[in-house]
């Protein structure tokens, strides 16, 4: 990311302290300022999880509770990694020493946790779609295939980050990215978008071609909210994933990009990768709140047929 030809930049390990510094130090990583904002978004998901745990057991299923616990546990690991990286950045700034393998290790673990959260939430939405009787088995096969590709691509991306950490960095310009890394990285984000899109389309078609009419207005409203939440969530994650593909590639597409431009791209990539799992988690808990509305609607009326999807058990 850095270039030794830029006179205003002190490279890692440089002995030039700069005009206003007594000791040799690095530039403070700008991503440390983003960690508190991302943590604030995480607090929303944690509060939603606490509210979900306080609901009566009769209004939530064990499967949803297990998925929520898995998702929030992985996210707590992600928060710990963010604070660990923030502390490491401050330490590097104060001591003037940095270790690239540590940064690549952090990135590897962040990618793995993001994959875990995305797959957990996607499985939850897949179970919602599967509860609809109009779903064909081919939709199940397609969603499963894209989900497996997402896992392979994400874990492969994390492994390639470790390989890049052992490779000596170039003296100037952005780090050299291998073809294998690009293949896994594109496979991860594209498969993630395809999984989201397939689930959204399957839910739309399943509701449209459902043989049992939804006769209660409250239940119909709840299903419309679930559908809107699913489509809007996956639409937003598609945009974020697309930007996550474009932003890191800009320094390689524009070789003459300044050091400041490279730092902005790196900061943008850090923000996008941090926002993506938080979008999934907040949407997940919002869907649980929507699904709870089906229980009261089904107990308030006897006109609903037995073949209608039982969302509070999902």
Automatic annotation (TrEMBL):
Region (Disordered): 1-20
Segments crossing the lipid bilayer: 31-52, 64-84, 104-126, 138-156, 176-205, 226-250
Taxonomic superkingdom: Eukaryota
UniProtKB keywords: Membrane, Transmembrane, Transmembrane helix
Compositionally biased intervals (Low complexity): 1-19
Identification of the protein by name: G-protein coupled receptors family 1 profile domain-containing protein
Source organism (scientific name): Puccinia graminis f. sp. tritici
